[in-house]
Amino acid sequence: MAKETKTSKKTDDAKLLKQSETKKISAGGTKKLAKEDTKKIAVSKTRAKKIKHSYKVKDPENALLLKLKDGDVIIEMYPDDAPNHVARIKELVRAGFYNGLKFHRVIDGFMAQTGCPYGNGTGGTGKKLKAEFNRNPHKRGTVSMARAMNPDSADSQFFICYNNCDWLNGQYTVWGEVTSGMEYVDNIKKGDGDNGAVSNPDEIVSMVVIADI
Questions:
Q1: Do 174 and 67 meet the contact criterion of CB atoms below 8 Å apart?
Q2: How many alpha carbons lie under 13 Å from residue 191 in its C-beta half-sphere?
Q3: Single pTM value for the model
Q4: pLDDT tens digits, one per residue of 60-79
Q5: By C-alpha distance, which of 95, 111, 109, 121 is closest to 30?
Q6: 43-212: which CATH number, 1.20.1260.10, 2.40.100.10, 3.40.50.10490, 3.30.1490.20?
């Protein structure tokens, strides 16, 4: 068997992040995003300061607590670089959309992908986001949006990079970075085969905006 070149591997990895088919979920097949569920919970200045100190984040309103089976992961978001994506992620998080969703595609040394309500990479909320490509690099701990071939097709699925993936730069919207707990992301169950599909995958226990705790 011919040895795979570094360039071809990067190309194949990039293709894995593009969904060949993204189905729109029917009204009965997705979680409703009721307005009352998406309102920001009031937090006193004293409480907010304690939260900020406890989780060591720059801005509790733009930081997420991602609970995995092995521990807590802190994701700090980039509202200045990807404002629409950050706003949508927070809306979905506050509606409880991500709780219980599977890490359906996980490739050792590359990335862990989640955010599909079907658990197989074909689903979303039906609301597409216009690309907000920025200069933030895809490196270990980067959190970025999965999409189809159309640059403006990101929805709810995202991935966390295990290593530097500079060939993805400028092609996917980077909206955050893991600043604590990356060792727990490393423990997410890996997939088998080239496409990284996972049998009996690990799940997101819960995701919350830290300001809402």
A1: no
A2: 20
A3: 0.81
A4: 999 999 999 999 999 999 99
A5: 95
A6: 2.40.100.10
